[in-house]
Amino acid sequence: MRESPALVESRRFGTRTVPVLRPLGWLVAGWRDFMRRPLPGLLHGLLLAAFGAVLFWAARNQFWLLAGAFSGFLLVSPILATGLYAVSRDLQRGGKASVRTALAAWRPRDDRLIMFGVLLAFAGTGWVMTSAALITGFAPAPVRNPVEFLRVVVLAEQGHLFEIWLALGGVLAAPVFASSVVAIPLLLDREIGVLAAVFTSWRVVMDNPVPMALWAALIMALTLVGMASVMLGLVIVVPWLAHASWHAYRDLVDTSGLPERP
Fold first, then answer.
1. Pairing state of beta strands 14-15 and 253-254?
2. Which helix or strand (DSSP H or E) is residue 254 part of?
């Protein structure tokens, strides 16, 4: 049976295996990049924190919707960090890595990144709708705020709504994480097709199941901390994780056989 061209393309270069605790090193390297060029990261973080605050205010009495929206943020966050991948890339090349570098990555000249962003947006929207339907349809009482979500869903004495909610979220989040964990930095950095980048991302996860599980847990934990601090923590967490994700990509993928993008 003939293999797809995208799968063949993804095998033109290799992936690397890393030690279990290597994700901690990515956090250290990401923090270093953030400290070297803080302004682009702070602007990204402020914009996302402001968006989260506006969303929370607009739906403050509809936590059944916010629960899905905030968890869906984890699905689309890789594409939102594109400008900061470009900053880390420029730093690695010895460039000046300014705000202009980050903005240039957002120019609609690369339909591959646009296509990937649209797919992630569909995934995020699908989870928000699924989460809202599940909570409004099966919760024994209205869920209007975080306290009611905790009481009615998380600590409910009967039923397994929270467990089902978590399981469905995991079923959606796991393949999205596996498809995007290195795909977007790879698309930014090298000339490669979208499907080939996704296949590469899956290879990385399958070659490093334990380190990548730790990486996913760190991303989730730090993002939740950022959200729990009235969104203010996202100002730091967003750029920190974005720069760290670039170093994860560079550590996990051997791109020496691929042409660089300018």
1. antiparallel
2. strand 253-254
